[in-house]
């Protein structure tokens, strides 16, 4: 009996396998619009979900998500697979944009509040409390500025963004142990910078 030996070749199923975000982003860096459309379809819900978690407002979240994808299109050539996955690169970008929007909104609200109450008589205690809070906030910001970039990034995501250690690890594309080390070292350094007794 004659047995036919066939060579393993690519099957039509291989052509149907969806490209990974890493593969798509590499193609986007070359100006491939179809790859960008596929990347958008694959990742937009996740990006929008992250942004919406921070902004709460759906319309603003959609706007920021559009800004993120515009930035992805414009800066895809900067993506480096050696530094992490496409998903974590994109989600970090989305988180940064959302935080920027929160800060801008907060600054606008603060400005409106200052304008609205500047002629209002306030009692001494509320003014004192407001000044103390602002001074404390400035101390924390100065202390955060003295952390390494990696420590600061982990602390901001975990404590300001409210992400779990595993979510921070996924966003930064590093092992969870690395995130825990960065957080521990960052918090120790923050405590020292703030002059807080352990």
Short description:
This protein is mostly helical.
Summarize model confidence as the mean pLDDT: 81
Structural domains: how many: 2
Enumerate the spans where pLDDT stays under 50 for 5 or more consecutive residues.
1-11
Outline = globular
Order of helices and strands: HHHHHHHHH
CATH homologous superfamily annotation of the largest domain: RNA polymerase sigma factor, region 2, helix turn helix motif
Helix content: over 70%
* CATH topology-level fold name of the largest domain: Rna Polymerase Sigma Factor, Chain: A
Strand content: under 5%
Distance between the termini: 81 Å
**Helices and strands: which structural class?**
mainly alpha
| CATH class annotation of the largest domain | Mainly Alpha
CATH architecture of the largest domain: Orthogonal Bundle
> How many H/I helices?
9
* Total strand segments: 0
Sheet with the most strands, sense and barrel status: none
| Rg on CA atoms, Å | 23 Å
Please give a structural write-up.
The protein is an all-alpha fold. The protein folds into two domains: 19-117, Rna Polymerase Sigma Factor, Chain: A; 134-198, Arc Repressor Mutant, subunit A (Orthogonal Bundle), CATH 1.10.10.10. 75% of the residues lie in helices and 0% in strands. It is built from nine helices and no strands. The chain has helices at 12-16, 21-29, 33-55, 58-75, 86-117, 124-145, 149-160, 165-172, 176-194. α4 crosses α5 (86-117). The protein is globular, with a radius of gyration of 23 Å. It starts with 11 loop residues before the first helix and ends with a helix. The relative contact order is 0.08. Residues 1-11 have low confidence and may be disordered.
């Amino acid at each position: 009996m004659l047995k036919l030996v066939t060579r393993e070749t690519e099957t039509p199923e291989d052509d149907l396998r969806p490209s990974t975000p890493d593969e798509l982003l590499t193609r986007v860096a070359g100006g491939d619009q179809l790859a960008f459309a596929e990347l958008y379809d694959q990742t937009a819900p996740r990006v929008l979900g992250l942004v919406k978690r921070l902004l709460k407002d759906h319309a603003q979240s959609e706007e920021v998500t559009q800004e993120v994808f515009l930035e992805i299109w414009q800066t895809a050539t900067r993506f480096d697979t050696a530094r992490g996955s496409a998903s974590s690169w994109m989600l970090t970008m989305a988180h940064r944009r959302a935080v920027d929007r929160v800060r801008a909104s907060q600054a606008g609200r603060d400005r409106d509040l200052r304008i609205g109450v500047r002629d209002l008589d306030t009692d001494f205690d509320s003014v004192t409390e407001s000044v103390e809070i602002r001074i404390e906030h400035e101390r924390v910001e100065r202390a955060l500025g003295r952390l390494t970039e990696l420590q600061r990034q982990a602390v901001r995501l975990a404590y300001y963004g409210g992400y779990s250690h595993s979510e921070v690890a996924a966003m930064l594309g590093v092992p969870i142990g690395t995130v825990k080390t960065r957080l521990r070292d960052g918090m120790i350094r923050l405590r020292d910078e703030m002059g807080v007794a352990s």
